[in-house]
């Protein structure tokens, strides 16, 4: 179902457009002014707007829409005899113009063509990005389409972006998309995991160091900021940065300058920063655990990646893509997931989100000999699949003692991870283990 944004200050015209949209199987979204239309633009596939409106006319609205998304078709309604206005609209980038009062058949045909054009533009854009990334992008659910549309609008603008989402949702893919669709796509894409490096070494890793700056620094080393010069630097788990280093990161963003550890000089860098985190940094800032000024500097644009439970309809397509990818990687020919198996995967709970699903499919493919895999493949793996609603445990004798213990431990971790909203530090605290030990278990059970 396509979403149509209908804009007119005349209630009768708006009603007629809304009924026409519904009769053709589309979802209408209405607005009585240009300003209201811009507030309701998210997720629409085409726009129909009147030309003659107070405060913001149709051409001004058209220009504002195309500043946000140049691929969105806009149909402009004009009064009879307003050929000059119609020409101006077409020159400004309108998809088509229709005179009022409009003919129902003509409007239906124009809308059908506009929606087909939109679909082709979106598909071409996706193919271009997939070519740049070297991988397919799966995400046809409305929640993912809104996110991908937002990425396409933001990527060409050289602004700092904060990507937020639960563990395993695909934040790294969104960061890659932002780089691939940016003007820096030909430059380097450099990643730095803020949680993987001890605090005392993180500054030297980020900004580099001079020879002899500390014990073991036998030669000068270029930091990640310098490596990303002219391209994009992705800071994974930015919420884990210690407060003193946050101040230095803020300076690097504000001034475009870095100072390697132990060096008496500053270096200019031209870097677009994309930060990713599973934490709510606004809440972290209010609690004093994250610098508020750095949060605002990072979140010029904030993108939220939905958890898998909010776009379950993508699970079959994701599973098929993972099976294709791992079949090629593992040399397993013609591996297919049967409809019953896809139904089981779609019904299962995935607290580890897309990454957990990916690891589960990798396990299925690795243990198969190719051909079509049925639901029984879930019980054949070395690790149990994600728990389905109402399924507590495998029958006795189906698993070895070690597998039973792994299943119990995995279930406890999954429940605790879900209860903390994916917060690894809090999950580790509740389970009474170190964060490092938890991360090892998350990797073991396919959560990370």
UniProtKB/TrEMBL annotation:
Taxonomic placement: Bacteria, Pseudomonadati, Myxococcota, Myxococcia, Myxococcales
Domain Sigma-54 factor interaction: 137-366
Keyword Transcription regulation tagged: yes
Annotated keywords: ATP-binding, DNA-binding, Nucleotide-binding, Phosphoprotein, Transcription, Transcription regulation
Record organism: Anaeromyxobacter dehalogenans (strain ATCC BAA-258 / DSM 21875 / 2CP-1)
Any GO BP annotation: regulation of DNA-templated transcription
GO molecular function: ATP binding; sequence-specific DNA binding
Protein's name according to its UniProt entry: Two component, sigma54 specific, transcriptional regulator, Fis family
Every Response regulatory domain range: 3-115
InterPro entries: AAA+_ATPase, AAA_lid_NorR, CheY-like_superfamily, Homeodomain-like_sf, HTH_Fis, P-loop_NTPase, Sig_transdc_resp-reg_receiver, Sigma_54_int
Pfam families given in the database record: AAA_lid_14, HTH_8, Response_reg, Sigma54_activat
Residues with 4-aspartylphosphate modification: 50
């Amino acid at each position: 179902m396509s979403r149509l944004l209908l804009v007119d200050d005349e209630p009768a015209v708006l009603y007629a457009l809304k009924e026409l949209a519904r009769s053709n199987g589309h979802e209408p979204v209405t607005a009585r002014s240009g300003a209201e239309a811009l507030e309701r633009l998210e997720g629409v596939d085409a726009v129909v707007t009147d030309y003659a409106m107070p405060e913001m006319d149709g051409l001004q609205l058209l220009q504002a829409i195309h500043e946000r998304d140049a691929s969105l078709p806009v149909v402009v309604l004009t009064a009879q005899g307003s050929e000059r206005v119609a020409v101006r609209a077409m020159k400004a980038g309108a998809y088509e113009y229709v005179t009022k009062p409009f003919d129902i058949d003509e409007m239906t045909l124009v809308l059908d063509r506009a929606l087909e054009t939109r679909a082709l533009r979106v598909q071409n854009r996706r193919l271009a990005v997939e070519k740049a990334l070297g991988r397919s992008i799966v995400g046809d659910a409305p929640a993912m389409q809104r996110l991908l549309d937002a990425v396409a609008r933001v990527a060409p603008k050289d602004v700092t972006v904060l990507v937020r989402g639960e563990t395993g949702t695909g934040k790294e893919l969104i960061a890659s998309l932002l780089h691939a669709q940016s003007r820096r796509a030909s430059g380097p894409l450099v990643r730095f995991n803020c949680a993987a490096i001890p605090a005392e070494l993180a500054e030297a890793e980020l900004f580099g160091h001079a020879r002899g700056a500390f014990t073991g620094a036998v030669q000068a080393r270029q930091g990640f900021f310098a490596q990303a010069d002219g391209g994009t630097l992705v800071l994974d788990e930015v919420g884990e940065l210690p407060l003193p280093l946050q101040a230095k990161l803020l300076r690097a963003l504000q001034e475009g300058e870095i100072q390697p550890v132990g060096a008496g000089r500053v270096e200019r860098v031209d870097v677009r920063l994309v930060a990713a985190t599973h934490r709510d940094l606004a809440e972290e800032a209010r609690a004093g655990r994250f610098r508020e000024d750095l949060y605002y500097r990072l979140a010029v644009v904030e993108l939220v990646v939905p958890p898998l439970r909010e776009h379950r309809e993508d699970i079959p397509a994701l599973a098929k893509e993972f099976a294709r990818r791992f079949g090629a990687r593992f040399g397993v020919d013609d591996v297919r997931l049967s409809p019953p198996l896809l139904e089981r995967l779609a019904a299962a709970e995935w607290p580890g989100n897309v990454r957990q699903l990916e690891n589960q499919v990798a396990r299925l493919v690795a243990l198969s000999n190719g051909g079509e895999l049925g639901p029984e493949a879930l019980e054949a793996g070395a690790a149990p699949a994600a728990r389905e609603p109402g399924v507590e445990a495998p029958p006795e004798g189906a698993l070895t003692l070690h597998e039973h213990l792994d299943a119990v431990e995995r279930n406890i971790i999954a429940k605790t991870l879900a209860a903390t909203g994916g917060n690894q530090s809090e999950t580790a605290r509740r389970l009474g283990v170190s964060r490092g030990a938890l991360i090892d278990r998350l990797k073991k059970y396919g959560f990370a």
